[in-house]
Amino acid sequence: MTWSNKYKKSIDCNNPKGFSQKAHCQARKLRQMGKKTESQPVLEMTKKLSTREKFLRGLKRGGYDVEKSHQYWTDMSKKLEAQKKEYDKQHANKPNINEESPVHNEFKKAMGVGSYGDFAKRHGVQKTKTIISSLRKERDEIRKKEWAGPQHVKHHDFAIHGLQRAIGEDAPVNNAGGGQVAGIGVGAQGEPGVQKKRKVASFISFMTRQGKK
């Protein structure tokens, strides 16, 4: 329980009563000598504090080191600023990947929000193949750059793969062995012949034949 200002003023330090009053009077004498104490004088307690001062005082009472925290965040801010300057310095001479990919940029504009299949239908197979060839050439040129990595050509790879699937370049080729072409086999409709597997005798039937002998 904290003492009120009225009670503190009523304490007679010439005749203090009890341990608490003696400690209070001793702190009062130290403050009068110009020294700092943990307890506050009555005038400071009655002074109206701002919201920020109340907040900081509450942090200090809770054991939070405000000065140390402020210094930490100041140092951290300087460190992040130095890292940003170093990053900008390292990447100052690297070109913008969008400037190095005019073919891919034009393809994105032409494609819009549609799918690769819609793009292939609009432009036809031959033009789509030409675009794939141009994208491959541009991708290979970017790969030769010293600064280039897989992340710089991933959009080219996605576009090439999507267009290839749209025109069916990735589809497996039909073959007679798989039964996908009719009319060239040995069956009634020209389907390929089926090689039947030899039935393996079970162990029980083997034992039965041995018993009959």
Secondary structure layout:
Elements: H1 5-10, H2 18-32, H3 42-46, H4 51-61, H5 66-90, H6 102-111, H7 116-143, H8 150-167, H9 203-212
Please describe what this structure looks like.
About 5% of the residues are buried. About 5% of the residues have low confidence. Helices cover about 60% and strands about 0% of the residues. α6 packs antiparallel against α7 and α7 packs antiparallel against α8. It is built from nine helices and no strands.
Task: Write out key terms for the chains shown.
60% helix, 213 residues, mainly alpha, 0% strand
Quick rundown:
By secondary structure, this protein is an all-alpha fold. It is built from nine helices and no strands.
Cα(first) to Cα(last) distance is 109 Å
Output the structural class. mainly alpha
Order of helices and strands: HHHHHHHHH
DSSP helix count? 9
Low-pLDDT runs of 5+ residues are 171-184
**Hey, roughly how much beta strand do the residues contain?**
under 5%
DSSP strand count = 0
Main beta-sheet annotation: none
Over the alpha carbons, how many angstroms does the gyration radius reach?
Answer: 44 Å
Q: Approximately how much helix is present in the residues?
A: 55-70%
Shape: elongated
Q: Output mean pLDDT.
A: 75
